[in-house]
Design goal:
With 112 residues, the protein is α+β, with helices and mostly antiparallel strands. The chain has one helix at 47-70; strands spanning 20-28, 31-33, 39-42, 81-85, 88-93, 100-107. The protein has one domain (20-111): Beta-Lactamase, CATH 3.30.450.20. Strands 1, 2, 3, 4, 5 and 6 form a 6-stranded antiparallel beta sheet that branches. The radius of gyration is 14 Å and the shape is globular.
């Protein structure tokens, strides 16, 4: 049976790293809002990795909101920021989209 491309959208910045978690966050001023229907997994994390991701996700959001406050992330210009902690790397960029921040979170050692 031939394989057809998935019709499920891939959220986030990168889909070349697995496993990874991608999302499109809604930016409202200097706050970010997570919408579950604008996110997804690429590949599979182990149960332990998934638990660690759940613990670290709010910390990544706080960091990205601080990047919005200091102007490192701006809705009017494309510029990627990256932060690593808790064994994960998060890449984020507004892509100049005026209201969205695209993120991909993956294991910190995935690109080595």
């Amino acid at each position: 049976m031939p394989e057809y491309p998935s019709t499920t959208p891939v959220w986030g910045l990168r889909n070349d790293i697995t496993p990874s978690f991608g999302a499109r966050l809604v930016q409202e001023g200097k706050q970010l809002h997570f919408l579950a229907d604008r996110s997804g997994l690429n590949g599979e994390f182990t149960p332990e990795q998934q638990q660690a991701l759940n613990v670290n996700f709010p910390l990544f959001i706080e960091y990205l909101e601080s990047m919005l406050r200091i102007g490192e992330l701006k809705s009017t210009r494309q510029h990627c920021v990256s932060v690593t902690f808790g064994g994960f790397t998060c890449e984020a960029d507004t892509r100049g989209s005026f209201g969205y921040v695209y993120i991909t979170i993956y294991l910190a050692d995935a690109t080595q």
